[in-house]
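Comment thread on ticket #2218

A.B. wrote:
> Attaching the input chain for the structure job we discussed in standup.
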Amino acid sequence: MNQQLLFSIVLSILLMFSSNIIAMETSGNKIKGDTTEINEEDKLVVVWTSGDREVALKMVFMYTYNAKKYGWWKDITLLVWGPSAKLLSEDKELQDYVKDMSKIDINLLACKGCADQYAVSEKLEEIGVTVKYTGVDLTNFIKERHVITF
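C.D. wrote:
> Ran it. Output below, let me know if you need it in another format.
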């Protein structure tokens, strides 16, 4: 009998907490960014190499945009490298997303060597991406910043 009572109490508490979380998320309240303090020197480079659209939308762009919007990182560079350059040149939704990133001061950079191989350098520049040879830049980023790759 005591085990059943204890189980009922624990279950009730869990249901109460989960109900409050659901109510907070669905009541029109905006969920605020993580309150972890970010050092002003924190710099992030996101190296996007995947030609997979889902990876772009559901990971690369979502994280990069929100990391800047919520101040998780003070300085963010998105480096478009390889097949991602071709994908970005062809996909209007991704181009619009990149333009939104530019509006919140995310640095947009593409590897000229890669972009030239796909013949998309001009298209990337048209949407606001700086296109240049980036081998030395990437080397310096690795030495001086936090770098993640997708």
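A.B. wrote:
> Thanks. Noting for the ticket: The beta strands are 43-48, 75-80, 107-111, 130-132, 146-149.
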